[in-house]
Amino acid sequence: MISSEVLPSIEVRNLTKIYRVHVERNNSLKDKLIYFGRAKHRDFVALRDINLSIMPGTTTALIGVNGSGKSTLLKILSRIIYPTSGTVILRGRVSSLLELGAGFHPDFTGYENIFLNASIMGLKRREVKERIQEIIDFSELGDFIHEPVRSYSSGMYMRLAFSVATVIQPQILLVDEVLAVGDAAFQEKCLYRLKELRRTGTTIVLVSHDASIVQRFCDSVVWLHNAEVKLVGPPEQCVPIYLHETTGTSVQPMSFDRVAHP
Amino acid sequence: MELRELIEYRYLWFELTLSELRTRYKGSVLGFLWAFANPLLTLIVYSIVFSNVMRIRMPHYSAFLFIGILSWNMFASAVQASAGVVVRQAGLVKKIYFPRQVLPLAVVGGSVMNFLFSCVILLPFLVAEGYYPTISWLWLIPLTFCEAVMAAGFALLVSAVNVYLRDLEHVLSIVLMLWFYITPIVYTPSMIPDRLSEFFKLNPLSGCILGFQSVLYFHSPLHWKLGLYSMSFAVVVFVVGWLVFSWLNKRFAEEI
């Protein structure tokens, strides 16, 4: 089905991300002057030499234990943080749902935030007006849409974020574990919406700890472990190995203490 | 990031400019009316103080002062408010991609809008004081533009640096206070001692503020040299601010 002419929606080449972990934060002027240019920090390798290529219209799950680099990878794909080295090529309009909330202004009402958020994703005011009812309906927030979002529960937050991010018909959708926040009924609704998007050709990358969602829903799995890609393949093949290795007795403890060049 | 991308995100800029104005008055009873009430009340205070308490020999001194203060405020409020804007908007910066330059530029947009609202008070007041509109009032448009570009340049610069050096926000308020007094706002250039006047001309903002005063108060021709100096300075600051911002912006999400 996928001919060699089709270019991948997402291409990641030799991607490495090193975070600076500040031993002591030197934020005051005195410290900046004293430690100028040689602030005390050590490097933490979040991703090491990652290579990936994700074809248009496919759904990929990123799996891995906490701290393995999934969210960092997703943040780099969303262009929120920049890689230390390597390249990322994205082909198409990207919409992302990271952790809780997709970038809301806490003092604005849900309604105002829809405009703000949709304009960040490149929609005009008029286009938002055309879709606003659909967004509100999908979120099922009712009158709460006119309350400031700081008063929202995490579930409500996620509902609104999910509604905006998916109604705008992105070509690439990046989702980080947000589904876990919603109740079962809303989760089903979200999965249904994701399937619809997939049918219309949206490339989806999601982080999930829910093996059943991964198996039911994804075309392929990328397993990250200790900042590296451990395994790539279809879910029916990867998920059992992953579950066996991370929950069985043969667990190799993962270290949060990775340094660049020990 | 290129300017082209910024044009794609003009709706976001507009949306954030509106939200900048909304947050400014959010929660107050008068709400948006403060955009007009604030300059009006300032004007009333000046009028009382300078016609009854402190006698200044300059005719219509409160009008002169009001022009200077309003045009200064557009610049100062834009620069001061943009210092912390990236940190304030951490919720957006850490969660979603957009060209971060939009943040300080929206603050500048809000300040310019605010200035335009205060002109609704200023211009009728000038007419009431006997300063009738002339064709040279059209100069207000390029003057506002020039000051906005300069404010945008400084806004980009301070908003990016402030992420790494949070002290800047506090230092800035002192710097701006000093800057206010070395700019001919409360006094006219003719009051400056001769030996200092060359030094005062180095201030890039003088060209803009003097421009506003020339057009609205003195009805004198613009100071061409000063105006061109201000405009070129504005362009240079904008380019430098843009480059510094683009360079520093890469680690914003990790630093805030």
Return residue spans of chain B where pLDDT drops below 50 for at least 5 consecutive residues: none
The total count of helices of chain B amounts to: 13
Task: Give the N-terminus to C-terminus distance of chain B in angstroms.
Answer: 20 Å
The gyration radius over C-alpha positions of chain B equals 19 Å
Give the biggest sheet of chain B.
Answer: none
Q: Mean of residue pLDDT of chain A? A: 82
**What string gives the helices and strands of chain A in order?**
EHEEHEEHHHEHEHEEH
Give the helix level of chain A as a range of percent: 25-40%
Oligomer: heterodimer
For the secondary structure, the number of strands of chain A is 9
Q: Helical stretch count of chain A? A: 8
- How much strand content do the residues of chain B show? under 5%
The whole-number mean of residue pLDDT values of chain B reads: 88
Q: Per DSSP, what share of the residues of chain A sits in E-state strands of 2 or more residues?
A: 15-25%
Please provide the ordered H/E string of secondary-structure elements of chain B: HHHHHHHHHHHHH
Radius of gyration of chain A: 20 Å
The shape of chain B is globular
Mind explaining what this structure looks like?
- Chain A is α/β, with parallel strands linked by helices.
- Chain A has 8 helices and 9 strands.
- Chains A and B meet through helix 3 of A and helix 2 and helix 6 of B.
How would you briefly describe this protein structure?
The complex is a heterodimer of chains A (262) and B (256). Chain A is of the alpha/beta class. Chain A has helices at residues 29-34, 70-77, 110-120, 125-139, 154-167, 184-199, 211-217, 235-247, and strands spanning 10-22, 41-54, 59-63, 85-90, 94-97, 172-176, 203-207, 220-225, 228-233.
